[in-house]
Amino acid sequence: MKRDFISILDWTSEEIRHNLDYALELKRQTKQFSCPKLLSGKSYGMFFHKPSLRTRMSFEIGIAQLGGTAVNLTEHDFKIGERESVSDVARVMSRYVDGILIRTFSHQSVMELAKHAAVPVINMLTDFNHPCQVMSDMLTVKEKLGRIDDIRIAFVGDSNNVANSWLNMAARIPLDLRIATAPDTVPDENLVAKIRKAKISTIKVTHSAEEALKDVEIVYTDVWASMGEKNKIAEREKILKDFQINSRLLKYARHDAMVFHCLPAERGKEITNEVIESTQSVVFDQAENRLHAQKAILVQLDKWHRII
Ligand code: CP
Ligand code: NVA
Q1: Quick one: CATH architecture of 131-286?
Q2: What are the pocket residues of ligand 2 if the criterion is a CB atom closer than 6 Å to any ligand atom?
Q3: What is the secondary structure of 174-189 as a DSSP string?
Q4: CATH topology of domain 8-130+290-305
Q5: 101-158 pLDDT, tens per residue?
Q6: Using one digit for the tens of pLDDT, what is the confidence trace for 70-99?
Q7: Bond before 264 cis per omega within 30 degrees
Q8: Residues of 212-241 as b/e, b for ≥16 C-beta within 10 angstroms?
Q9: Which residues contact 20 (CB under 8 A, 6 or more apart)?
Q10: Mutational test site, ligand 2, from 123, 137, 161, 181, max ligand atoms within 8 Å of CB
């Protein structure tokens, strides 16, 4: 049965929990240079319409460690939906590869691709979601805190694709999720309403970073202007200046709170150099866990696909 990973909501709570357990097992095996070649003979097509370091490296290396092959097309080679329709691309690619991975602007076009593809589709980031990032971050949470349920987490800054995937995660795993942002950068109210309706987590949207940070175990931030909206940076620097993660603000969190950032970071804007380099920062553990969590996603999707 073909399944996809376009949104955290595509998978159940049990499937997410299993993925994290399996990712830990794969991580242990990989560290011992004994990663099983579970994707031997499999091929993957990757589309990048935005820059990437972590996502591209971790997927390409992860596929190779599992014995598969990845072919990467950038926007210079090919722009989806321009030279030919998304549905034609989906059907052609499905004849060549065992999975399609895409990083692009429009979330809608990724859903369209998945609708017409006969093979699993993985969302490597759209303007709306970044599910691979948040699945991997949950692996970091699990390793660091020994649990994933009922964590107190504040996402501070622009309510972007990463924040949206945290909201989606809150409909699958119980969280105390606070989003601290300016009035002009709040998350979509329909999305917030949908997640609250799931009644799994507590969701608070506030304009006070100090209030959001009270007693949290995790402080999360990301760039103030995402890829595709870098022209908004001057405006965002004005409206989000009170949401910078700095030593003063961090004092409102638990004394041992961990600082998360999906990277790349713009030091001096959404986070200070001092905080990102501090012992509370786990940003490079997060980056490493992209590799292990995504390998588990690839193997899981392949397993499901082989079930008729
Ligand atoms: N965090 C993340 O997705 O990084 P890249 O944009 O470098 O892939
Ligand atoms: N929100 C950021 C994440 C980068 C990994 C962006 O979309 O640019």
Answers
A1: 3-Layer(aba) Sandwich (3.40)
A2: 125, 130, 160-162, 222-223, 226-227, 262
A3: -EEEEEE--GGGPPPH
A4: Rossmann fold (3.40.50)
A5: 999 999 999 999 999 999 999 999 999 999 999 999 999 999 999 999 999 999 999 9
A6: 999 987 777 777 889 999 999 999 999 999
A7: yes
A8: bbeebbbbbbbbbbbbeeeeeeeebeebbe
A9: 135, 138, 139, 142, 148, 293, 296
A10: 161
Measured CA to CA, the distance from residue 263 to residue 240 in angstroms comes to 18
Burial group, residue 120, by CB count within 10 angstroms (0-12, 13-18, 19+): buried
Ligand number nearest CA of 283 is: 1
Pocket-forming residues, ligand 1, beta carbon under 6 Å: 52-55, 125, 133, 262-264
Model-wide pTM > 0.85:
yes
d(CA 134, CA 130): 7
Residue 285 appears among annotated catalytic residues: no
How do the domains of the chain map onto residue ranges?
8-130+290-305, 131-286
Query: Which ligand has its closest atom nearest to the C-alpha of 59?
Result: 1
